[in-house]
Amino acid sequence: MSPVASVLVVVLVAIVIPQVAPSRNAKPDPSRASKRLMKELKKFYESDSYKNNVFTVELVNNNLYEWRVKLFKVDPDSRLDKDLKRLRAEGEKDYIILHLLYPENYPFSPPFVRVVYPHMYSVNQFILTGGVICTELLTENGWSSAYTIESLILQIAVLVAGAKVDPNKGSGMPPYSYEMAKKTYDTYLANKSWPRKPKDQL
User: Per the database record, which ranges form the UBC core domain (predicted)?
Assistant: First the structure.
């Protein structure tokens, strides 16, 4: 098993351990959310993911509640990894860019997460129209305040590993945008029909 795959397995084991459910009635507390996000940023820069260049984090316009994440490493045996290497050979960016928006009542509610680059289509249906990542993990019922940015991004790395990079780079398809991603997310939230990881990937 590769070092990257080993890290993902360890983190996933930690994620599936039952956690105490956070209060769903928690009132938004920007100061609390800010402190938590600052703490997580500090921990990230001390983490193995940062030291091993698995992913990086940048604040968008110095906004603590809006992050741009560059994911450099996915499962080396996945189709996505092969597609990213192909992009590199073509002179394109060979990593995934994610856009995260945190709510004011974080960590009691999950961030909104979407793919910005590259344009992908998902065999397991976790990446939908607009690039939004739809999984029960990112809903009020599936979220836990115990999750950290590192565990969340590594979980997302596992989910997107089943996707494929669009060889036409989105040509002839609606471009990824926040508006379209949010509309798709709201539709799935209303229908409560979230894609689930196949049993053979658990």
Answer: 32-202
Query: Which of 1, 3, 5, 2 is closest to 154 using CA atoms?
Result: 5
> Rounded CA gap, 53 and 141, in Å?
31
Entry pTM = 0.78
Interatomic CA distance for residues 124 and 158, integer angstroms? 11
Domain boundaries, the chain: 32-191
Please give the CATH topology (third level) of the domain spanning 32-191: Ubiquitin Conjugating Enzyme (3.10.110)
Render each residue's pLDDT in the chain as its tens digit; 202 residues: 554 444 444 344 333 333 333 344 555 667 899 999 999 999 999 999 999 999 999 999 999 999 999 999 999 999 899 999 999 998 999 999 999 999 999 999 999 999 999 988 776 678 888 888 888 888 888 899 999 989 999 999 998 888 888 877 655 566 688 998 998 888 877 876 555 543 333 3
Which positions are annotated as active-site residues?
A: 134
Residue 114 in contact with residue 14, Cβ under 8 Å?
no
Q: Can you list the alpha helix ranges (DSSP code H) found in 17-62?
A: 30-44, 48-51
Structure-block tokens of residue 191: 């229908």
